Amino acid sequence: MVALGITTGCGTSTPPATRADQAASPSPVPVAAEVVDVVCSPAGTRVSATRFAAQRDGVHLRVQNTSGKSGVYLNYNQDQRAGVSGGDPVDSGTVLILGAAPGRMELNCSYDTGSSQDAPVAIEVLDPAGAWHTGDLAALGCSSPQSSLIDWVYRPGDGKTADTALAALAAQFEQPVTWRHVREGYVDSARQTYVAMRNGKPWATASADRSSSGQTVSAYLGSLCSGTKTPHS
């Protein structure tokens, strides 16, 4: 008789994990500053960060002037199709809140009312809170209020709220309109955008600007929507 050796319940051991098997822990995402310091210095325009997060009301810039020069402006520039361009006079400690779209923006200081200026510095605007909205105006066949200004025909409407300011502006029109608020730009921006609807169709855009004190609002007629004739004074 031949005895058969039967092995049951063979145990296995787990080999130590290799580096390739170990899941790499994700790198921490850099925190972007919510306020960026811009310094107009003797060595040129300097910024405290090149990536920063917009807040719900826009992009916050705090400006310092150490250049020793007068007539200082902070200039900013984005793609004309999507962002803002312009310049503002600044003193040390000035805080600007810009409606700059997420993406690339260039900043530079100029002096003596533009007679000399620094080389531009590129920064990246982030929107981690998703506070920027766009596309509603285009869907109605309209462009942003600052793209084709016609406010020389009608004086601004003023009031304590956007509704009263828009009513004062509309009182000057030859035909009645109703206002439609559209999401264009930052959700809590001091500038909100509206479309004047005439006979149920988009006629023109307007911006309602809240004052720095928050006590008053001024409404300005902006661009005409597609298919609209230019009004005459």
Mean pLDDT comes to 83
What is the CATH topology classification name of the largest domain? Immunoglobulin-like
**Percent of residues in helices:** under 10%
Structural class: mainly beta
Strand content: 35-45%
Straight-line N-to-C gap: 120 Å
What is the H-and-E element order?
Answer: EEEEEEEEEEEHEHEEEEE
Overall geometric form: elongated
CATH architecture of the largest domain: Sandwich
**What is the radius of gyration computed over CA atoms, rounded to a whole number of angstroms?**
28 Å
Largest sheet, if any?
6 strands, mixed
Whole-number total of structural domains: 2
CATH secondary-structure class of the largest domain: Mainly Beta
Count of helices? 2
Total number of strands: 17
- As residue ranges, the low-confidence spans are 1-14
What does this structure look like?
This protein has 233 residues and is mostly beta strands. It folds into two domains: 35-132, Immunoglobulin-like (Sandwich); 134-224, no CATH class. It contains two helices and 17 strands. The strands form four sheets. Strands 3, 5, 6, 8, 9 and 10 form a six-stranded mixed sheet that branches. Strands 12-17-16-15-13 form a five-stranded antiparallel sheet. It is elongated and about 55 Å long. The termini are far apart. Mean pLDDT is 83; it is low at 1-14. Residues 1-25 are annotated as: Disordered.
